Amino acid sequence: MDESRGTSHVYGIDRHTLCLTSLSTADASHSLFALGTLGIHEPGEIHIVDLNSDDDDVLHNSVFTHTTGIRALAAAPWDEQQLLVVSTEGTVELVALARGGEREETQVMAQLEQTSKANRVVCHPMAAVRQAAVVAAGVGVTMWDMAHLPALTQSLALEDIETAAWHPTSSTVLATSDTHGGLRTWDLRTATVATAIECAHTGRIRALDYNPNLPYHLA
User: Fold this and answer.
1) Which of helix, strand or coil describes residue 65?
2) In what order do the strands lie in the sheet with 183-187?
3) How many Å apart are CA 159 and CA 175, to the nearest integer?
4) What angle do CA 160, 182, 191 make, to 5 degrees?
5) What pLDDT score does 16 carry?
6) pLDDT the model gives residue 2
7) DSSP letter at 111?
8) Where are the beta strands (DSSP E) in the chain?
9) Closest CA relative to residue 163, chosen from 200, 216, 126
10) What was the pLDDT predicted at 115?
11) Which residue ranges of the chain lie beneath pLDDT 70?
């Protein structure tokens, strides 16, 4: 029996990396991804990988240097040329991908002033909302208004927090996971727990996201 198989693509990189995120694009024929390198013995880099289905599914890439190593990345839905970057030191920056000149590099536009070291940042998927949540594992999560200069709007102290995810259609619902496999959703209007499942998973939940087509389903 004939079986249809997809085509796989390998993007090789000779530097240590921890993070990968998809990028929004108005061109449906392109699938864009960004990955960040740790910059252990060299400056950090952001690689933009473009899978162009109109060009026989060929991978293309651009490389942008960054001043620090990169622990986590989040695409900014409000601007295709912007990313939020968590450095290996735990700082969070809004950067633009500056093109031109002798080399391509990131341009730091603003810094989110954290009191604790961050390990993850997530942006609300709706471009009009322009909100970001910064997770400091074992400390809590802070919410930021990114409409103009980044402004801290709210914080939740959660000693066992591991990661977080925005509800795809609501700007007042945030899901968080903890180090014991628990899962909670928060109503940010009142800073209270809306739903809690203490043993949603048998182990630590390291990554979390909503299904955009079924907004009450989490993976």
Assistant:
1) strand
2) 161-166, 173-178, 183-187, 192-197
3) 15
4) 65
5) 86
6) 39
7) E
8) 17-23, 30-37, 44-52, 58-66, 70-75, 82-87, 92-98, 105-112, 120-123, 131-136, 140-145, 151-157, 161-166, 173-178, 183-187, 192-197, 210-211, 214-218
9) 200
10) 87
11) 1-9, 25-29, 52-58, 99-103
